[in-house]
């Protein structure tokens, strides 16, 4: 059992949440700029949509591996260790991209994708761990809404900032990203020092146990199978939601250049997509949905998929932009609701918390494997508009099936879970 499970902190206030957002904003800003720039840089160098999809998918293959490794080897980590380690590893990403651009090496771009997959999982576990360790269950939806809003705000800025930085030089671009990452690391370091000082007063009032059960690998696989079968509706909704987001981050910048006929204005599609998500998350922050979260996320996902389907039939650019904007507002609700459901499950099932978090991250990683690969293959044979529509049809039909087959509330077999952990 993880140490942070046994040492539950007072969740009576948000005294740490606002502080946590400072380093999160800085590292997400760097990540969003890289996420926008990386597909464009790679596509310009390799000139192949399929190779772009493969390179993008590598990060998520690594991410899936991390999702299996973290519960086994990082069980004692709190959000602080996850955050620090994630930021440190992230610094290698822009450096490798810089080397790859000058050496024209696909292997360097692959390495950059590997680094991306590693550090992003650490950051994602930091977010989930922070909410479960520090926040009240009733605040999960609102807190996730705020985190998504910050992420989308950085994503909104990233196309403009990336275009400016890349227009200077690749060296200027890389140095600027590293500077932002170092700032994030320093902010996080001083935040942790401050929190530890506050904790000194409570040290003698709390008992922290470091007991941990050594779980064999096959036993862990059995636990993943049991949990996965029970939370499959939440897993699949998260997978489809992340697939749509990955689709836009993979081909959105390239499609923007094609739609506008200009490299300088290629950021417009991703800018509008992220603007819509930012507006939508404002609804979740001020009017959080705390009941029927699973069914609500499924409904909003179906609406999002439906709005993508007509894009291939439109000849008018304004209509395409309008439907993408409406779709982004709709899909903005899905992520916070689904992640809140994962956090709720983790909170209610303490012994399997790290495994539920791992499945949540595995869902995202798998989506970033499948979506870029599928988008890259389809883009070789059909237009980008058709790629969006095909994704919309597939996800709508699958989500409709899930909606009618899934229960209103998921209950995990805690007795069986405890037996597996104890075995």
Outline the secondary-structure elements.
Elements: H1 3-6, H2 17-46, H3 49-73, H4 79-90, H5 92-103, H6 106-134, H7 140-168, H8 170-200, H9 217-230, H10 232-260, H11 268-286, H12 293-308, H13 317-331, H14 334-348, H15 353-379, H16 384-405, H17 414-422
Helix pairs in contact: 2-3, 2-5, 2-7, 2-8, 2-10, 3-6, 3-15, 4-6, 4-8, 5-6, 5-8, 6-15, 7-8, 7-11, 7-14, 10-11, 10-12, 10-14, 10-15, 10-16, 11-13, 12-13, 12-14, 12-16, 14-15
Descriptive overview:
The protein has 423 residues and is mainly alpha-helical. The chain has a single domain (15-207, 216-422), classed as MFS general substrate transporter like domains (Growth Hormone, Chain: A, Up-down Bundle). 80% of the residues lie in helices and 0% in strands. It has 17 helices and no strands. This is MFS transporter. One of its GO terms (cellular component) is plasma membrane. It is found in: Cell membrane. It comes from Candidatus Dojkabacteria bacterium.
Key features of this structure:
transport; transmembrane helix; 423 residues; 17 helices; 0% strand; MFS_trans_sf; transmembrane transporter activity; membrane; single chain
Question: Structural class of the helix and strand makeup?
Answer: mainly alpha
| Percentage of residues in strands | under 5%
CATH architecture: Up-down Bundle
The number of helical segments is 17
Helix content: over 70%
Shape: globular
Compact description:
The chain is an all-alpha fold and 423 residues long. The protein is built from 17 helices and no strands.
